[in-house]
Design brief:
alpha/beta; 15 strands
Length: 256
């Protein structure tokens, strides 16, 4: 069960965020703010304490707080984001993390290692880490070494088609896992109950489980029906403005 969730308000510079889909156009700041507020309200309805951080205007992608830390039940790991323009975002999260974790349980990924939180998927005590353009082998090795100190475990997953691991695969508890594209037939996930996400709804592979409820991006009815058929309560949230800069539901929060 999650008790706390950290979010950061989108900045007015959001239109300058990194994107691999320029054909979608630039995000509209005012609409993004409304969507972010709806996201916060959805989180709050799941019986969690939401910590809302102010916008960082110098960092267009800073609303995607998931990438700058991984918060486990034993320790906090401050990442070293692979995109140079995002690297200094970590300086603005440490004091927040220190409110919840003692300093001796806050760990750091150090250069030349890079790691984005979007490449980390937690399944109980095991963490799957995607090797991507943002997360390198050294970062993965450091991350697994840190986990080992706390009797946690990790393993590397290769990916070739998506930005982050959780762009295409997400665990929603009870051995249920959303899989799309290159992850459908990956051997690492053969023992899970797979919810296959078709290509036309691939964006909805990025859902989040919060205390028994699954939050789903708005506009993907096939995925929503499959999740509901498993007995989950669902909430839909429109994240179309964040999709324009490669962001999904999980990217917008740190859940612990």
């Amino acid at each position: 069960m999650f008790k706390n969730i950290i979010v950061r308000k989108p900045s007015k510079t959001i239109c300058k965020g990194i994107t691999s889909s320029p054909e979608l156009g630039q995000p509209n700041y005012e609409i993004a703010l409304k969507q972010h507020l709806a996201y916060i309200n959805a989180l709050k309805s799941c019986d969690v304490n939401v910590i809302e951080l102010e916008a960082l205007e110098e960092f267009p992608d800073s609303c995607f707080v998931e990438d700058i830390a991984v918060l486990t039940k034993e320790c906090a790991i401050i990442t070293n984001p692979g995109a140079l323009s995002r690297n200094k975002e970590i300086e603005y999260i440490i004091n927040v993390i220190e409110q919840f974790y003692p300093k001796n349980k806050i760990e750091y990924i150090k250069s030349p290692g890079t790691l984005d939180g979007g490449d980390v998927m937690m399944v109980g005590n095991h963490f799957y880490i995607g090797k991507s353009d943002r997360t390198n082998k050294e970062g993965i090795n450091q991350f697994i070494s840190i986990l080992t100190k706390y009797n946690l475990f990790g393993s590397e997953v290769t990916l070739n088609e998506v930005l982050h691991l959780k762009t295409g695969i997400n665990y929603i508890e009870n051995n249920n896992i959303l899989v799309s594209g290159e992850f459908i037939d990956k051997n690492e996930f053969k023992n899970f109950n797979k919810i296959i996400v078709q290509d036309n709804e691939s964006y909805a592979a990025n859902c989040i489980w919060i205390n028994g409820t699954v939050i789903i991006p708005f506009g993907y009815p096939q995925v929503q029906k499959k999740i509901q058929n498993l007995g989950y309560k669902t909430i839909t949230v429109d994240t179309s403005e964040f999709k324009k800069i490669d962001g999904g539901l999980s990217c917008l929060s740190l859940r612990f």
